[in-house]
Amino acid sequence: MPQASALSVPHLLGIKDLTAEDIRLILHTAATFKEVINRPIKKVPSLRDLTVANLFFEDSTRTRVSFELAEKRLSADIVNFSASSSSVKKGETLLDTVHNILSMKVDMIVMRHPAPGAPHFLAGRIPASIINAGDGTHEHPTQALLDAYSMQEQLGNLEGKKIAIFGDILHSRVALSNILCLRKLGAQVRVCGPPTLIPKYISSLGVEVSFNVEQSLRWCDIANILRIQLERQDIRYFPSLREYALYFGINKAMLDRIDKRIVIMHPGPINRGVEVTSEVADSEHSIILQQVENGVAVRMAVLYLLAGNR
Question: What's the alpha-carbon Rg for the chain, to the nearest Å?
Fold first, then answer.
């Protein structure tokens, strides 16, 4: 088990609030916990006396299950909350909902919410530690941390490494958190996608912008491919999924034309045949399933380190 160390922040609201030292501490701690979850006995008593509430106001599979498993591996008591089966549907406010849960003596809250800034709103009003599991199109910090951990497993130190993020940058909280995290770790970052799905001022974050998929693949060491988020698009940003796949999808023929190995990543869920073909997603280039495994270790690290601040 890692030695007790503290982050510089009481909550994990976004990568923006973390220092490079915080990020390195989380990734170092995650490496220890990855060893733990690969042992025959996978549980440690680190959070045995704490209660964690998982508040999910949006649908989720990977993130929710990953957090629940991380909490169980740390021996925490868990309260699961789903907005679809709660008094929120009767008009109860977010703050009232959380105060009711806190009255049950909850110590930490993992929260996903469709409104950007919802975890920040709560952080200033309640005593529990809050972990942002995704707020609207703003940030998804634990996804960025597990992506960075997965990249380090492949490349070692990320200083100077070239990372390309492909797809729907405009609507992706994963993209923003990845950019902030990778830049703090010294990586070179490029975003690539249709002009309509690239935010206007994205270059102000210190990233390159490209609209050429194959050229960006040749440039990068790792390709992190993002899902087209149709559920967040209130207008048409491209003519059709077929046309998107034709001009911006990544397929095996592209990788075969490039004379180097490129690591393929995807936060899931995958729109197979749209942003990436099954041949690529399931190929030897892909570390998508390793990302899922690493997610548990990284979230264990975040929970453990924030508990040390209490």
Answer: 19
